[in-house]
Every structure is written in C-alpha cells, then in structure tokens.
Amino acid sequence: MSFVKGVSVAEAAAVIRAGRLVAFPTETVYGLGANALDGAAVERIFAAKGRPRTSPLIVHVDSVEMAHDLAARWPDAAETLARRYWPGPLTLVVPKRAVIPDIVTAGLATVGLRMPAHPLALELIRAAGVPIAAPSANRFSELSPTTAGHVPESLADYVLDGGPARVGIESTVLSLVDAPLLLRPGVIPLPEMEALIGPIAVAAAPGTGPHESPGMHARHYRPATPLFLLLPGERPPLGKGAWMRMGREMPENALDYAAVLYETLHRLDAQGLDWIAVERPPDTPEWAGVLDRLRRAAG
Length: 299
Known about the structure:
An 11-stranded mixed sheet has the order 1-8-2-3-7-4-6-5-9-10-11, sandwiched between helices. It is built from 8 helices and 14 strands. The protein is of the alpha/beta class. Strand 9 (172-175) and strand 10 (181-184) form a beta hairpin. It has helices at residues 9-17, 39-49, 64-70, 76-85, 119-128, 190-197, 254-269, 288-298, and strands at residues 4-5, 22-24, 31-35, 58-60, 90-95, 110-114, 132-133, 158-159, 172-175, 181-184, 201-202, 227-230, 241-244, 275-279.
C-alpha cells in the first residue's frame, strides 16, 4: 500500500483491524499504532521503527474500564490517578493480563496503559474495537512527530491527521507495580501526583535487558543536527547554528515550552545547521519532562 495522509477514522480503524499500521494523533505526540492484541501486527511496529525489542510499548485505551480488562491488578493508586488525569498525558504501568502479547511489553509481566486526550485517538480506539499499542511515530531515537507532516513516509501506510499536538512531549510514565516509581517525567509535576498518592521514587538509569518504560535510553529524541545543552555563559562551537533561549526564541513557561519543543527542533533540523544550542531550563518539577528530553537529545 502507498503512504496515505488524511484518512478518515473509519478507514484508519479498518486498517488497525486488518493488522496494519496507522500513525495517529494524541495530545502528546503522534503515535504509530497497531492492534495491541495482535502480536504479528505489533511486530511490524518494531520493524518499521528499528526499535529494540527491549523497549516496551504503551497501550492506548478509550476508558478506565478498558484498562481494567487489560490489567491483572489495578491498584487503588491507579484508580485515583486515572480518575484525575485520564484522558491525558499519564501512562500507568501495572501487572498485565495474558491477553497482552509479550512482544508489547518486552517480555515483562507489566504493561503501560494510557487514555489519550485527543478526540480522534479516542474515536479511533472505539471504532477499531481494540486497544492500540503505539510508540511515537518516528524512527527509533529520532525526533518525535507533533504534526502529521513530521511522520516519515516509510513508517506507516496511513496517517490520521489531527493537527498539531497540544502537549508536545511524551507522557509521564509511572509504575504502580510495587511502590510508586517515576519511570519517565512528562508535563505532570511529581509533587502534584504525590499530593494524591503519597511519595513517589524516581527510577535510576536502566541496566541491560528489558526497560520498564519507553524513553529510558541515554540517547533519544535526537535531531540529526548536533544539539548542545548549555548553561548561561557557555558558548556553542564555531559554525552556523541556532539558539533556543528561554524568553527569546522559546517560551518561559514550561507547558508552553513543551508544546513547541519538537516543532522547533524539526524546523531547525531542516535548515542544514552545524549545531543547535539550547539554554538549559531550570531543574524544577515543572520542567522535569522538558529537561529530560533535552538531556537525552544532547546525549
């Protein structure tokens, strides 16, 4: 099949049911989706992205009730957080039922579940009638797409165009398998979640073997242009480059910054620059998701 952009939800749902791949919008970034209950379809995601099998996928659901059907155990903390943040940019890692193929979860006995806040994403899940496994619709470790135009043409057969992503960076990932553990920061500040469920530890860098969450590789979210994360007063190397400074080229508010981060990097990456210099944001809870993406992009 040829690359088709701008298909309808009904057409995209039929593609999902047929075991094919569809790039679709969420409020965070565009995802590359397949039927989460079809191991062969999910295998196509890994092949298309060049994604290592040690990196699990997030499963997107259309309701808390669908999440219950996929979880072997649904802790009270999961119910509290889902009722507060779903639909929204929060992924909850819980023990999985056997109906989820092991390829989705990197062979782990846990699964990351999320109910996206984009209306087309929810409509797609409901029309397909199955949960949808989806990482970001990019080649592995490269810049995530926040518009349909960012999705590489070799990646998916069809793209469901839902306009620019509103949040702009990937979801917060929180494990509730044992004591709460933050696996990947996003736009939800840690103290805000702790006010609801109590103390949350922060995961260390993963070792060898399967990762508990996507987005834990040291080098990730990278433009092709070398990116330098600089403190005030530090200078980039010589050559032709572009700055991303807070209050000048970039917003001073963390949520506004996240919303335009990947769009800005995509635009600068297309300009044939020698470097992109980014002024380091504050190391505070509100900025944790943005700072995490920039650190990994700078390697």
